[in-house]
Amino acid sequence: MTTLRVAVAVAALATLLGGCGDSPRPTAPAPGYDQSAELRDALGTAAEALQAGNYTFVVASPARTTEGIVHLPSESARITTDAVELVIAEPNRWVRRSADGPTWYLVDSSRVRPGSDLALELTDPDLVGLDTIVAATTGLTGDPKTITGTVDGARTQSAYLNFPAALPFTANLDGNGRLAELDIETPAGRWVLTVSGYGEQKSQTAPTGKIRNLPSSGYARLNG
Fold first, then answer.
1. Of 151, 180, 193, 207, which alpha carbon lies 20 to 30 A from 105's?
2. Looking at the 3D structure of the chain, how many domains does it have?
3. What is the CATH number of the domain that holds 42?
4. What is the pLDDT of residue 170?
5. Of 95-99, 135-139, 162-166, the least confident
6. What highest taxon heads this organism's lineage (predicted)?
7. What is the pLDDT of residues 20-44, one digit of tens each?
8. Which of 196, 207, 211, 215 is nearest to 86 (CA)?
9. Residue 169: inside a domain, yes or no?
10. Cα gap 6→12, rounded to integer Å
11. Residue 122 and residue 188: Cα distance in Å, rounded?
């Protein structure tokens, strides 16, 4: 499955503040306490939240912006980039290029090259590849709401983050421990993933308007 590659940058340190007067001072972690393990668990939980397959996302990079709606219960999704829009309502998918105006093309999945963007499947509802990125993180600091560290770009297989370097990142989690924003500093600039609308999406259906069968020339372009 093609995943969407992402990216990250800064840090936040949690401070425990008491009220006025003779408030107790923050206590130090007990000997043997491993903060990085707690933060890794928090990131893992955030990645697991995508497995419900019901959310929206935006990946903003120096090269392009990708938006998506995922609705696993109906096995449907909609992915939009600057140049192409893809609708999946299994077993069918339709694609529309910006250059083609309102015309949609019905895609024959058997003619799609494995690994291309048109080969996107919903077998893994984590379309943004967050689990892969989390597995490649090290040096975690912060607190369970704002986590910073580095991600090994060489270990990520997501389509938009594949740099052979350690990249600084910041992850912001919402009040339910789900990812709200992931910000990675890449050599080309900031790569920002935002996720929202957990559990609020509806099934995506076949597009309306003019629909044609995708010609052979279209497979050659879109499989590239």
1. 193
2. 1
3. 2.50.20.20
4. 98
5. 162-166
6. Bacteria
7. 233 333 344 444 445 789 999 999 9
8. 207
9. yes
10. 20
11. 30
**For residues 86 and 93, what is the distance between their CA atoms, to the nearest angstrom?**
7
Residue bearing tokens 């938006």: 67
Spell 160-176 as b/e; 16+ CB within 10 A means b.
bbebeebbbbbbbbeee
Can you say whether residue 115 is alpha, beta or left, with left for phi > 0 and alpha for psi between -120 and 50 degrees?
left
Nearest to 138 by CA among 152, 120, 127: 152
Q: What is the pLDDT of residue 147?
A: 97
Longest Cα pair distance anywhere in the chain, in angstroms? 76
Q: Which two tokens stand for residue 28?
A: 């130090």
How many residues would you count in the chain? 224
Q: Which residues, other chains included, contact 118 with Cβ-Cβ below 8 Å and sequence gap of 6+?
A: 86, 93, 95, 107, 112, 222, 223
Sort strands 54-60 and 189-196 into parallel, antiparallel or unpaired: antiparallel
Task: State how far the Cα of 18 lies from the Cα of 79, in Å rounded to an integer.
Answer: 46
Domain limits at 45?
A: 35-222
pLDDT band at 176 (very low <50, low <70, confident <90, very high): very high
**Residue type for 137, please?**
T
Q: Provide the pairing of β-strand 211-213 with 104-106.
A: parallel
What is the token pair recorded at 154? 């060489």
